[in-house]
Specification:
Strand order of the largest sheet: 1-2
Number of helices: 19
Strand content: under 5%
Shape: globular
Structural class: mainly alpha
Mean pLDDT: 80
Helix content: over 70%
Radius of gyration: 21 Å
Order of helices and strands: HHHHHHEEHHHHHHHHHHHHH
Largest sheet: 2 strands, antiparallel
């Protein structure tokens, strides 16, 4: 079974998806006039944007105290970054370098730079087509496929794929990496580590998106800042090696050795795959949480999620890559995944390195598990309102699959994730290419309002009359 999945992954990733991802990213970058570069300042400003009611009737549901339960721009950013900043940043980067060489880092950067435009488009569409839920908003690709393309079968297909990818298989990756890190650092049994992780995750996911958002908005800044500070210290301590590190990355990305040996394809494939796993641009995951934010204009969440791609790949992933390349251990055959990252840190900071990575990856993975769970929840609610189905999903996502990941092999869990990620991304790319024109029009409107001195642009569904009947939340 593992061999069959590997063969399918090689075909899909080697010949189809990489070209589609890069092609869509380039198209969206050009069509939005390089939004990911021109509007970085606005992205940073929007992090302080509080949850708002653009119209009194925008959210009618209230809880028992009469307060509306809103998710702010920063909380939506934190939940999406929580799923991005996880094992992909530590184990995924290490795996890409081990399998594809240092040049894979270059292709991770490329997919992040152009993929951030794709992230902008998909998250803007998610905001545009979001729906009211009992205590918040809900939305994502399944919703914009049904409301924008009127293809129920395609929307349900996406919902099933993303539930399998994030709610189930992706959580097994998080658990697998945590258990490997804990065993390497402390010698703890994967069974016990997986059980504790599952119990903690179940406690959070039964609290809904508000509890997930609150936990993520606390954990994400703490863990990301701590990890980046450590990486910066290591880089400063080895500042004389940085020019060599950049040289190795660039030369390996296009090097004669790789071309002569037929390895340049593996370098690109591993860089793009692990880059996508980490930053999720185009995969259709972040739009699910982008839709929950209460903002005055859909473009705001598009910009916020584009910033999330930069934060993940250009900042956190680069930190891991630099630590590994500075250590020089990436050529050691027995090191792969989280063990490579731990060994690299140990070579720089001593015995505390593996311990730090074990603690960091526990926090990274825990925040990813609860964020991944929500992606599945939003899409199961799209398919059915059954409380029994939802309870079974919660137990499977935060419980069963976490235990499975703790016990399964490194190769098996990554192959399963790559399999679902390929088909999930393909489905979403088709949808956003067909619907992208609405995101472009919204961006033009946002820029126009800003040029006319409007500090907080506002969108009303009458501005897209052909979609007015499908836009529930922009009255």
């Amino acid at each position: 079974m593992n061999g069959l999945i590997t063969s399918v992954n090689d075909v899909v990733w080697g010949y189809v998806l990489i070209f589609a991802l890069v092609g869509c990213g380039v198209w969206f970058t050009i069509r939005t006039r390089f939004v990911q570069f021109r509007m970085v300042g606005e992205m940073l400003r929007l992090l302080t944007d509080s949850a708002v009611d653009t119209v009194e009737t925008q959210v009618k549901e209230r809880n028992d105290t009469g307060r509306r339960k809103h998710i702010s721009s920063f909380q939506a950013f934190a939940v999406s970054v929580a799923t991005r900043v996880g094992t992909g940043n530590l184990a995924g980067v290490a795996s890409a370098i081990a399998l594809g060489g240092p040049g894979a880092v270059f292709w991770m950067w490329v997919i992040a730079l152009i993929g951030s435009a794709t992230a902008f488009v998909e998250s803007t569409l998610a905001q545009l087509f979001k729906r009211r839920h009992k205590d918040s908003f809900i939305g994502g690709p399944a919703y914009y496929i049904q409301r924008g393309l009127h293809q129920r079968w395609m929307a349900v297909t996406f919902a099933v794929l993303i539930t399998c990818q994030f709610g189930l298989s992706n959580n097994s990756i998080q658990a697998n990496t945590v258990c490997g890190a804990m065993q390497e650092a402390f010698g703890w049994s994967p069974v016990w580590v997986g059980t504790v992780l599952a119990a903690m995750a179940l406690l959070i996911v039964f609290g809904g998106i508000q509890r997930i958002a609150h936990v993520s908005s606390f954990l994400v800044p703490v863990m990301a800042v701590g990890y980046v500070i450590l990486a910066v210290v290591i880089i400063v301590m080895n500042i004389d090696q940085i020019p060599h590190v950049f040289k190795v990355i660039v030369l390996d990305a296009f090097g004669i050795r790789q071309i002569a040996g037929g390895g340049v394809g593996a370098t690109i494939m591993n860089g793009v795959k692990r880059g996508l796993f980490s930053n999720e641009a185009g995969e259709g995951s972040a739009p699910n949480v982008a839709a929950t934010a209460s903002v005055s204009h859909p473009v705001k969440q598009g910009l916020i999620q584009a910033l999330g791609v930069f934060t993940d790949t250009l900042l956190v992933c680069s930190c891991t890559a630099f630590i590994i390349l500075i250590s020089g251990l990436y050529d050691v055959p027995e090191y792969n995944g989280i063990a490579l990252t731990q060994s690299a840190l140990q070579s720089e900071v001593g015995a505390a390195g593996p311990v730090f990575v074990a603690v960091a990856i526990f926090l990274f993975a825990f925040s990813s598990i609860i964020g991944n769970y929500y992606y599945g929840e939003a899409n199961i609610r799209f398919i059915t309102s059954s409380t029994t189905v939802m309870t079974l999903y919660r137990l499977s996502s935060a419980g069963l699959m976490v235990i499975f990941g703790a016990l399964a092999s490194f190769e098996l869990v990554w192959n399963i994730v790559d399999f679902f990620m390929a088909f999930l991304t393909a489905c979403n790319l088709v949808a956003i290419v067909l619907l992208g024109r609405y995101a472009f029009r919204l961006l033009d409107d946002y820029r126009c309002q800003k040029r006319h001195g409007v500090k907080e642009p506002v969108f009303h569904r009458s501005q897209l009359p052909e979609l007015a009947s499908e836009l529930e939340c922009w009255e």
